[in-house]
Structure formats: C-alpha cells, structure tokens
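Worked Example 4.2. Consider the chain below.
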Amino acid sequence: MKKLNNEEKNQLQVILKKYNHNSELLTYEEVLCDKILCTRLMKENAKMKAIVDISTQIESGTGDENDELETMLQKLLFKFNNEKQSVQVEIVCKNKSFFLYDLLIQYFEKICKEQEFEYSIENNENTVFDIVGFGAFERFSREIGRHRGVQKKNSEDILVFVYKSSKKQEFDFKDGDLRIDIYHSSGAGGQNVNKVATAVRITHLKSKIVCACQTERTQLQNKNIAMELLVKKVKEHYEKLAFDELKRLKKEQNKLMEQGKVRRLYNFEEDYLLEKLFSGDGND
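Applying the procedure from the previous section yields the following structure tokens:
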C-alpha cells in the first residue's frame, strides 16, 4: 500500500487483527449466549468493517483503482483513529504492599495488551492508568467499584474509578463552524473606522459563543483579534464541560463506593499465588 505511511500501516494491521479476532469469538456458543459481550463485539466490528472491506479490495486490485481506494482508506483510518477513547483508570489503595494492588496492576496491563490499547502508568498518591483505544471506556467501566482481597482472615478493599479523558481540543475552525458578520464601528474613531465596515463579529455556531472587535482600523485586524478571543472562550467552554462531566462521574462513582457493594472478590491463595506460579514469577 504505497500511500499509507508506516503508522497507518501499523494501525491497519491492528484493526485487521482485532476484526478477525472478534469474528472468531462470535462463532463460539458461549460468546453468543453472552448478550452484552456479543453486542460489544458486533458494534466494534461494525465500525471496522468499511476499513476491512477496502483493505481486501486493495489486496485484490491493481493500478489507478488502488490509488483511489487507498485515499479512501487513509480517510477512514483518520476517522477511526479520532474515535479512539482516552480513558483514565484510577486505583485508590491505602496499602500498596497488599497483594491485591499488585494483582490489579497485572490484570489491567493484561487487558491493555490483549485489547491492544496504548497505555502508561502514573504512580503518585494514587495509581492512574492513562489508556487510549477503541472501546476502552466500555471495557474498563466493568471494573468500576470496590475490589476486595482476602488473605487468610484479613481483607482489604481497593477502589477503582474510570473516567473518560477529554482530548485536547484543536480549534482550527472550518467555515461551517462559524458565522462572520461585518458591520460599521460605533463611537469615536478615525475616518476609516467610522466610514468603512471594519467591525467584525464571529459566532461559533455549536456553542453559541460570540466575540466581536471594532477597535482596529482594518477589517483583517479586527477579525484576527475576534478570532483569538473566540478560540480562548470556546476552549474554556469545552474545558468547563469536560470538568463538569468528570465531577459528575466522580460523584456518581463515589456514591456507588459508599454503598459498600463489592465488584469482585479475590483470594490470595487462589488468585495471586497460582497466577505467580504459572507465570513463572513464583520463587517459593
């Protein structure tokens, strides 16, 4: 595929692999009986199908036809990449030496590798997984809640919170996103300001945010200043929306934690020691 760069080729291989893996899973009776899992796999494949179909056509085609198909494929890959979800998984643990902390880290890393999610881990007061991948929130939302580890007669809880991360907004507005009005300036000003329509008002149609400028002598200068103000205000608007949504999710999940229900129970001997033994990490 001549037009695709290395990053696009790698992304295509990941998509083809995941599509084929999902398709194989959907042939298993136990998967078909699990309605939630079955629906998730079908939705994932539906979003990848167009990419898979065009890739298949390119493999069997030649010449100019392939050039057009590869251009289409690049656009689909770009769109698919932008639909990736950015997720934060926060592990709140008072005692990081407790076996369950280590077990959850291993478990979440295993999920990321199996699902081919990009991830990194931040260890501050709490441990946070920064994850990017298709369907990442849906997968990790199943882990929200209180996880309890039992070692002999002792038990400890670890809380797991999952949030959608807001992507950094790029405000390179297209013509269809804005309405630009030109009008005569009002008030005191020079001859050019008062007699020529130099004032500019720009409206961001989606957020309804309006910024205007009439202080400069030319329409272009006023437009540039109004655009700078608009970018700043729209950015602040969406940052506030993202902050409010995060606050709402935290409140909702905290309420769930307060109910005391346990999402999953882990036994030291059965879940941790056996895992260590069969992975080759056990030394005792």
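The chain is about 55% helix and 20% strand. The chain has three domains: 6-82, 85-168+260-279, 175-237. Compare this with Example 4.1 before moving on.
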